[in-house]
Specification:
Blueprint (H helix, E strand, L loop, with lengths): L8 H133 L4 H16 L4
Length: 165
């Protein structure tokens, strides 16, 4: 039957050589290649996992950054509002102080005018009294009786007191 299949010793030698070559290649070449492929696959899987973790961390950092940026904007807005409020209060205080100073100056001016008015009235009264005394002196020189003289003096003093000054 082997002869019918045309199988001889050369065939078996080639078969044995082939099997020996396959066993040798498996031991020397295929196992290290398969191990290198497995190592490479493991390394790629590890790098993919690390990249996914890095992406998650980057997303978290981006969210944190966004929160910090929002917080910084809010703080800047609050600082700006506080500065504006302080400026408005300062402006109000300055205006109030200026108004108070103007009112004080006005009151001082009014008081000074009143003093000057009283002084002028006093001067007019003194002048009128002196004028009355002079008139009285002249009248006395003409020998007017005492009752007439007193009457004239009272009348002169009343007129001086009724002056519009």
């Amino acid at each position: 039957m082997l002869e019918a299949l045309n199988l001889n010793a050369t065939f078996f030698a080639m078969l044995a050589s082939f099997l020996l070559l396959v066993a040798l290649l498996k031991a020397v070449a295929f196992n290290p290649i398969l191990k290198a492929i497995d190592d490479r696959r493991t390394k790629i899987e590890t790098e993919i996992k690390r990249a996914e973790l890095d992406l998650e961390e980057a997303a978290k950092l981006r969210a944190d950054y966004s929160q910090e940026q929002k917080k910084a904007r809010q703080e800047a807005h609050e600082l700006l509002a506080a500065a504006k409020k302080t400026a408005e209060e300062s402006a109000h205080d300055i205006v109030a102080a200026a108004q108070a100073e103007a009112e004080s100056m006005k009151q001082k001016a009014i008081a000074e005018i009143e003093r000057e008015k009283q002084k002028a009235l006093e001067d007019v009264r003194n002048y009128a009294v002196n004028l009355s005394m002079l008139a009285a002196e002249k009248i006395i020189q003409k020998n007017i009786d005492a009752q007439t003289q007193a009457q004239l003096m009272d009348e002169a003093i009343r007129e001086v007191g009724n002056l519009p000054c």
